[in-house]
């Protein structure tokens, strides 16, 4: 009896610990698909849950997840509120040092390419408030991949 109660308690804790992640994933998926429809975007969904739309293909090389890139960007929420933005010259950074949505998403662009990344929370800052970004937030980034270094 003692062991069965422990097993039930363990099963309950394990099943509950993954609940919020699943809930935000489903919520984010609907938020992103609604946004795409409302804004008439032609976006591609990745296996990870990331969506991207390429407006200008670019003609240069494609980065890998190990590349250092220079990117000009604007980051905003679904309601259009901007939370971060670079200058037109962009910033340079290694793709391994940023959120998962960027590490994956930037690799779909070629140098000179422009487009949009729609990043669900699990590929952004997660389900908890981080650096002023509310937990569970879908993040949208307008991207211009200036160069691959």
TrEMBL record:
Keywords: Isomerase, Rotamase. InterPro entries: PPIase_dom_sf, PPIase_FKBP_dom. Coiled coil: none annotated. It catalyses: [protein]-peptidylproline (omega=180) = [protein]-peptidylproline (omega=0). One of its GO terms (molecular function) is peptidyl-prolyl cis-trans isomerase activity. Gene3D superfamilies: 3.10.50.40. It is an enzyme of class 5 (isomerase). The keyword Glycosyltransferase does not apply. It holds the Pfam family FKBP_C. Residues 66-149 form the PPIase FKBP-type domain. Its EC number is 5.2.1.8. Belongs to the FKBP-type PPIase family. This is Peptidyl-prolyl cis-trans isomerase.
